[in-house]
Structure prediction request, 121 residues.
Amino acid sequence: KREWKTVQESPSRMYFPGGEGIAAMQARAMKSVHEVASLSDSKVAVFVSHGDVIKSIVASALGMHLDEFQRIIIDPASVSIIEYSSVKPRILLINDSRAIVTDLLVGPKRSKNLLGGGSGK
Prediction:
């Protein structure tokens, strides 16, 4: 179908009949992410959504154009972690369906790692 091809090849141009477009969905999702990330007392926030919404958030964090977001795989019930406390968002974990979420939340903070990894020594 033509609509499916648009979703796969150029999702930023897709508008669902009677619904919103994929670009508008990404803008709505990112508005929520940035609102929570800007809260001064915000340490950890959990967002639960459909795969395409999560993929659009990950794509934005990576600086990818929305038309490339189909290259990202997000499985049902998987966990992805994005850190928004540094200059640019950093992907700490993506599409992990093996981890126990509580273990991830109490794990050591990795913010001292430089972009690209390493301890900077």
